[in-house]
Batch of 4 targets.
Target 1
Amino acid sequence: MWIEILCFVLTLAVIYVCSKLGHSRTLAAIPGPPGNPLTSFLIDYLDLQGCKTRHVASLHKKYGPVVCIASKEVSLSSHSAVPKIYTIQSEKTSFYDMFIVFNERTHFTMINTQEHKNRRRPFASLYAALTVSSGETEILMDTMTMKFIDALAKQIPLEKKLYELISPSILDFMTAFIYGNLGATAALESSQDNQINDDLKAPGRRLLFFAFNQFPVLAEWATIAINKLGLSNHFPTRTYPQLFSHGWHTWQSFDQKISRSEKLDATTSASVIAQAHDSGITGTALAAECADQLLAALIALNHVLISALWVLSQPSQHSIQSRLHDELRALPPSALDSAGNPSIQTCSKLPYLNAVMKETLRLYPPFSGAQPRRFRSDVVIDGYVIPAGTSVSMCMYAMHRNPEVFPEPERFWPERWLDVSEGRMREMERYFWPFSAGDRRCTGEQ
């Protein structure tokens, strides 16, 4: 009997190894370092160190637009590959399981295309430019702008670093926008509320992501053991604990009000959580969507705004600052509100300001890492056969720094987006996608 069992196990092992070798042989035809089709150790280690994106970009520079970067992982950097990868025929990989919130899949992590489409629809309208620049949202934006200006005035000469004012301001706006007054923070005035921002800087965050991505079963066992032993204060077992705790308790407060048919104030009625609930998203799915969107907004807005201010603060960029000042000073009184600030609609029409933000997004996109997809059957992309189940993604870092499309790619040069031919602009736009692409691109793009 034992001989039969051993033979059966050995047969399965041989089949598994042969399938792996067959997969590796197909990937070996794709350009890249010789050992890459056999292992993912190096790329995983670089990911843990925060160096994966630059490493992959360097491989594209050496090997071209299609590169095998690890076993079962291929990176591409041509605009022709974008519509092929980010299409309804592809599906998200297990990579996105790390972002499941409250045991619920949000529209960011949903695998099924139709489920994602149905869930995404109400949020797309909530983040549309027309919605954000009108009604309660515009009033909220004006209020938060004045609070930031007041806080900034109190810090002159600056006793804090500027980002220490920007981060809490973003948090206060986004919590009010998503949760209304039920979950609005006062991080500019309260260090306790600002602890949510501390989640974004937690040093162990990358290690946790690495552990749950590479060793999911072991990481799950370790989590259970740590929690049972009461050691979670010493060994964090989840990312963004303050943010998700805030989101959970705010959802509970909202859910109680709805169940009691209590009237919501104007700000809360216009919030994401209320509008999403009215569209039919309820229960923990609603809690997960709102917490997930708060996290995404905090990461994206902090990164982009602080990157823009850092670049503009450099002595070499003084001329860019001056041109921005001139554009703002040239605005007529009719374009300003009662406090003398330009409206959202006005800002969206300022050519140089928009060029500065585009150039910031080119060099410092909110998320420049891989956004992987997979196919259930073999697919040909840019002339290479990609085996079924292989993780494929675009290297945004390489695309945004393609010297043939963006001359002097490392130079911060907003003028590249101004006074160019229609054909030239179209070519740059093809390689510019800081909010991803396809039906699953970021809902906050506008």
Note: The two ends are 66 Å apart (CA to CA).
Target 2
Amino acid sequence: MGLEMLQLQNKMVGQLHPSSFQMQETNARLGVGLLAMFFYLLVGAIVFVRIEAPREALELEAYIEFRDYWTQRMVRAGFDEDEIDRLFANVRDAALNGIWVEKNVTNELNWSFGQAFFFSGTLISTV
């Protein structure tokens, strides 16, 4: 059914003979639409940077203080700075992959069947 509709559409488009004025008008509308979309994206990017950048700078400063504090404590305890860097990198990588365990609590996997089903539905509805 879909292929037949596409073939019919191609036949109909082939029979159309728009004037040069209609083509210019269509191209102008497309250009204005693209410019409006670009302007909207530009304004949106500026708004997000103005809102999020100060908070991100504060969080980075707090993280640097936190890391310096624990690095000093661990160096005093006899750890090498390379080992400390590997520890922080491993914790970061695990957290970025959705793995976070506090104390001795069992942790659910990120890709349970229900979550995978929801993700698939979201993907289908977006595409």
Note: Residues 74 and 83 are 10 Å apart (CA to CA).
Target 3
Amino acid sequence: MKIYTIKNNNFQVSVKKTGAELCSFKSFKTNTEYIWNADPEIWAAHAPNLFPIIGCLKDDAFLYKG
């Protein structure tokens, strides 16, 4: 699978060609990787967009079951 990587002095971002899936977001300053590493022993995917909210929330709030 083709992966595109861009970087500057602060960050490096890698995105898969298929679906534009974000597969890496790394800070050079802290040497921190912010995206799941897709460990095949646990779960071999990234899919950071699986969180139930994508986008802005009205009044910056979310009410669950309530």
Note: The chain has no helices and four strands.
Target 4
Amino acid sequence: MHGLLKHTLALAVVATYHGVCASDAPTIRWESCDGIIPMDVQETFGAHLQCGQLTTIRDHGDSSSPAVARDVIRIRATLGQDTPPPTLFVDFGRQRFETMPSTVLEWRTSNADDPETSGFRKLVDRFDIVFLSHRGDTKTFRQRCGKFDYASAVAVLAMPPESADHDTMWDSVIGNARDIATRCAPVTQEVDTWQQVRDMDDLRRALGVERLDLYGQDLGARVLTTYAVTFPQHAGRLLLQGAMDFTDGLDAVYTGTPYGLELVLWRNAFVPAANDEGRWKLGGDPSDVRERFMEIPFELRYLWSGLMRRPEHIRTAIDIAHLYLMVPVDVRGRERLIHDVASHRFADDPAVDALVRKASRPLVERLPREGGSILDTFKAFDGSYIAPICNDARWKTEPEVVRDWLTKEVALRAAFSKQAVEQMLVCSQWPAATHEGPSLDDLRRIPAFVVMHDEENPWQPLWNIQQATDKLPNATLVVRESAGADISDHRFSCYRHLGTHYLLTGELPGARKNYCSPGDPQPRTASRHER
């Protein structure tokens, strides 16, 4: 069923629900923030900070469904105004709900004269900022859904498809994914984006406001994209950071990912390292640098996905892998490695040695604390994360399609996202997924909006975002370009300023594409890679 038709039917369901329950309009019961919000946040905002419970419905598709309570936090505009302030709905995605006001505290206490942060401070001054807890924000799902076996999944990914044990191991991985999906789906059937955006609109109604301006990051940006399409009459300015949400087939969602990650590595690591071979000692051609990168065992490349982006990261990863693997397994561990790194010389040039040594820290921190398999470090399955994704029909794919995609050589060669692997495997076994997200055609019909993206985002490559925004004449792209190896304490005033200025004024950046380099207050209309 096409996205727009699904969208129309969904609106009909909501209209029916609100017609049946008109006398039971959603309400908020405001209460103390003690025990919920840190005291430093409470003391800073004082009476401007409010916590409460939104009364909404468990299943918006069933008018007889029981009522449920959802946590709400509101920070009232800190400057007095002649007219009621606009309301900014903020969703930081995977960030824990109760910590979100701490981020706003950072905005409030930032330097008002700093072009990088002054826009965020003005948001706190002029907007009522609201947060709504996600469906699925509970440990119950993690306990009842089971654990995803990353070790087996990575092992089969690292194995050549023609290996004798490949089919058997693959069947085991699929069995694990099926067990999780079978246990998790029944207890999370109302945990999806379709329900979440209707909770958002109930919040809008309970607050008594006509419009919500929207600012979302990663998974939050996905939810807000859907809200803007589902309730266009109530969606104001839309600022997305790090993600979008639309239905355009598995290829559009996934196939670009390994290519995009490879492209990021090629541009930001392989080519610069080859251009300065005397400094990095990784080879004089980008292909040579890539071969050195491939010397790092697959399990470590997988573990370090997202951390290897520039020449110094490749240089340190090669050395760290060697130091780690040369130690016997029974005495191998993080503490031993920290000792070995302290006495290791990464480069003859003291400046390069210091830079590479600094880059080694996050890689070391991801390794096991004590002896054992690298694969043991992967986190357990988190049902609260996977449910809203697998409950959306766009992620439902046949296992063999997933297998073919995952075993493509390119998927094994890039620093791949563990979350995407988990998502594809578990969602392929999900028993029921009825709601689709908006299509690109749906997104074309909403008012102009802004998408901010970091060139070094490890989970959503810029290439993927560009493919979508190129197809959307109403989307303006703002890109934060890489700082490079030699810049520390860099500023991106252009990047953040353009985003916050849009929320504050409604004025779009001057071009469809805007590229912000470190320390540059003015954007360019072409990427430095295109010059």
Note: The radius of gyration is 24 Å.
